[in-house]
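Listing S7. Sequence submitted for prediction.
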Amino acid sequence: MNTRMRRAAVAVAATAMAVSLAACGSAKESGGKSDDTSAAKKGDDLKIGLLLPENATARYEQFDKPIIEKKISELTGGKAKVVYSNAKQDATLQAQQVETMITNKVDALIIDAVDSKSIANSVQKAKDAGIPVVAFDRLAEGPIDAYTSFDNEEVGRVQGKALLEALGDNASKGQIVMMNGAITDPNAALFKKGAKSVLDGKVTVGKEYDTKEWKPENANANMEAAITALGKDKIVGVYSANDGMAGGIITALKASGLKTLPPVTGQDAELAGVQRIVAGEQFMSVYKPYAPEGEAAATMAVSLAKGEKIAASVATSTVDSPTTKGVPTYLVPVVSLTKDNIKDTVIEDGVYTVAQICTGQYKAACDTLGLK
């Protein structure tokens, strides 16, 4: 395992330990104190609302939901109930889901916002009802009580550095296409900022898109337009903000008749993305360990639901949103995932097995990489 991966692994392990320690004692014992503005302290018989933004991206249903549910159960001796809804990329539906959570009198809410700005009114309604809110993965606006995510500018920097590495001397011999995420997602702006901090002055951006709703089919249409405008042979690389869009992009590149695909980035280490990396169709993804992020969100929500202040061992820093200053925060480190470290990341961490990755059409490529 290389030095960068070791640093990330150590940080993740430290976080897991911190979350575990915080769960073992009272808020006072783990560095927190009673929050005078919250309701009276409650026991473990809690109701925690969990609102995730969509189900097209595999991570939310496959990883985040079960991780959060498991940690909340562990923290409360199995007594807490998680009430779950998925907004299916519909901000209006998510606002209605918050209303339902308020009506159901949940003790705390974990929200991954479809639209970080429009959710502010819903967050305020929850706050007015005495329900604390943890912003999960995306920094929601409004009076949120805590936030956990990844270092999103670093995600973009990791993607940009990997793309430059893959381009080598070709960086100056053509143009790249930038396929950013949805403008409704504040993380997309941070990914873009981080990537551009690395790429500016080193590549020529021929076409750039903010992809509506992060949908692969929209990325596919955008890429087809870019190929038409620039010419398939003039595109030396593609910055794709996540794996789902990378799939749509690669489909468009293949359909154009290219014999050799330009390097394409990604994010989330989705199974299909990992398989494309194995096959040499996608250059890289960003591996974001979901367990420490989900466990931190669960720990924050349980503490707040009990009327306790979040322990400093869990919220290790603060961030400012456009509407709220000094939000207690934990940011999880990330790792660049390429064909060279699949075994040391997603396989070693138990995210996927070799059998899941190396299905029929990928078996020969897996054998070449020593994935057996």
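Caption to Listing S7: primary sequence and predicted structure tokens for the chain studied. Confidence is low (pLDDT under 50) at residues 1-39. DSSP finds 13 helices and twelve strands in the chain.
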